[in-house]
Amino acid sequence: MTAFPHVKVDERRVKPNPSVGLHAHCTDEAIAIEEGMTPLRVTGVRSDGAEYTGQILLPSTYALLLMKLYALRDQWQNAAKEFGRKHAIDLYTLVALMTEAEYEASRELSKRYQETPEGNEASRIVAELFSTESGGGVLRMKEHGTLPATANIAAFLDVLGEFFPNAGKREG
Fold it and tell me: What is the DSSP string of 76-140?
């Protein structure tokens, strides 16, 4: 008998028992998840008809980029996971929608975490998949089918290279 009979735990994940279609994984790369969060007020009607007002905290762009890089690393050659295309396009979307304040906050978080094992691995992923416009990560973005025709891939690669600076020099 476990201390939490309504939770099933295995080596890969934690989920409610009985299942409700949700589960959680350990994400070592979520090192910055609680830094620079953006509060967002939400209101609405619950399924029981009751009014609800509350606040959620959205992770920083930097924290999301880290997690998406790791997810892409894990899936980019896996056909069963559609080669991680969604994660690749999510990376582009995060950079494309970034505000100036989010950009500056991401630069600061990058400086703080670039020498950690997680930051170094993110830089390695960028070097492997996003070092050129013909890199595997860019290919996955294009394969997704929603990359705008006007996408500035060079600028996107420059931002990734700036946030994950150990990635080395790009060769256009």
Answer: TT-GGGGGGHHHHHHHHHHHHT--HHHHHHHHHHHHHHTTSHHHHHHHHHHHHHSSSTTSHHHHH
